[in-house]
Specification:
Elements lengths: L1 E12 L3 E4 L1 H4 L6 H8 L3 E4 L6 H16 L8 E5 L10 H8 L6 E5 L5 H14 L5 E9 L9 H4 L4 E13 L7 E9 L7 E3 L11 E3 L1 H23 L8 E4 L4 H11 L10 H4 L6 H11 L8 E8 L3 E8 L1
The structure holds oxa(dethia)-CoA (UT7).
Oxa(dethia)-CoA binds next to helix 2, helix 6, helix 7 and strand 12.
Length: 323
């Protein structure tokens, strides 16, 4: 008997405030045209004052639980992928656990920046396969607007806030690639590249700090590493690009999304794209895209999905799952 971690529910939450590119024209030397053509972003959502990552995460979790048709008490573990926790500690995951009224189970955060959701999915999968948990709530939630240097036009126009969540549940499979659930994972990091994307604050400075990025360098690594990790994950599952129904990529830049799809020889008709509406929401971007992709009628039960993401660290990875 093979155990698989199968998606039972999905949901997302976006803060009410929508910020179109034009709003940046008033504060920095930029244009809607530049932002659209260089990144594909048209608008993004920003959290309201006092609205924290845990609030967004809780709303997404409630939506995923409703979609799954189960109560929070049935959840054994909560994993939140985030780099923008409300506080240094406790974890956002325990805040969500409390907000959901759960009195059992365990909860913790995973920090792998924009690749965080792939790392969280891999962790949830390992826990389900090893019997430590039967149902895991996996959440990606971020408020990157709070890390922006509003004078740096090369970064402040790119990011947004939001959250997405999946309910994963142990189910019996046949051990073949026809099974629903997570079929393979591929995780990577390389700390030699820590200086091309980081936040210049934390315990060392006593401040939250601001995001600093060498955009061109990160772009170069993304184009090279994303197709590679996606191919490796497919290979581990015994599948190829031809088997892929949907690439659900990290939504940082439409040019990176297109470049990766081209390298994977998957046409853009089979890629879920939300970057125009959300901007880069870091660890929230993949679960947001999964939820929106399902709501649009793109992703259907039985579809073979590859997710891939890269971010600060550098950290990058891919997950292959059958929806
Ligand atoms: O999720 C984590 C991973 N992050 C990413 O994947 C982001 C990766 N990087 C990128 O997406 C792209 O590199 C950017 C969108 C950040 C930048 O695009 P680019 O084509 O690499 O532009 P660039 O940084 O080379 O800048 C080109 C020009 C520069 O002017 P000069 O030096 O050629 O005169 C910039 O100063 O565009 C200028 N520029 C802007 N102009 C108008 C940079 N930002 C802006 C802006 N508005 N907001």
């Amino acid at each position: 008997m093979t155990i698989r971690a199968v998606v039972r529910g999905v949901g997302h939450y976006l803060p009410d405030r929508v910020v179109p590119n034009a709003e940046f024209e008033a504060i920095i030397e930029t244009s809607d045209e530049w932002i659209r053509s260089r990144s594909g972003i048209e608008r993004r959502h920003f959290a309201a004052d006092g609205q924290m990552t845990s609030d967004l995460a809780t709303r997404a979790a409630q939506a995923a639980l409703a979609d799954a048709g189960i109560e929070a008490e049935a959840i054994d573990a909560i994993i939140v992928a985030t780099s923008t926790p409300d506080l240094t500690f406790p974890s956002v995951a325990t805040m969500v656990q409390g907000a959901l009224g759960m009195t059992r189970g365990f909860a913790f955060d995973v920090q792998a920046v924009c690749a965080g959701f792939a790392f969280a999915l891999a962790n949830a999968n390992a826990m389900i396969l090893s019997g430590q948990a039967t149902r895991v709530l996996v959440i990606g939630a971020e408020t990157f607007s709070r890390l922006m240097n509003w004078k740096d036009r090369g970064t402040c126009v790119l990011f947004g806030d939001g959250a997405g969540a999946l309910v994963l549940e142990a189910a019996e499979g046949t051990g073949t690639t026809a099974d629903r659930g997570i079929l393979s994972t591929d995780l990577n990091s390389d700390g030699r590249f820590r200086d091309i994307l980081y936040v210049d604050g934390g315990t060392s400075t006593g401040t939250t700090g601001h995001l600093v990025m060498e955009g061109k360098e990160v772009f170069r690594h993304a184009i090279e590493k994303l197709a590679e990790t996606a191919h490796r994950a497919l290979d581990k599952a015994g599948l190829t690009s031809d088997d892929v129904d949907w690439i659900v990529p990290h939504q940082a830049n439409i040019r990176i999304i297109e470049g990766t799809a081209r390298r994977m020889q998957v046409p853009m008709e089979r890629v879920v794209v939300t970057v125009q509406d959300h901007g880069n929401t870091s660890a929230a971007s993949i679960p947001l895209a999964l939820s929106v992709g399902k709501a649009r009628g793109q992703i259907k039960q039985g579809d073979l999905i590859v997710t891939e993401a890269i971010g600060g660290g550098l950290a990058w990875g891919a997950v292959v799952l059958r929806w």
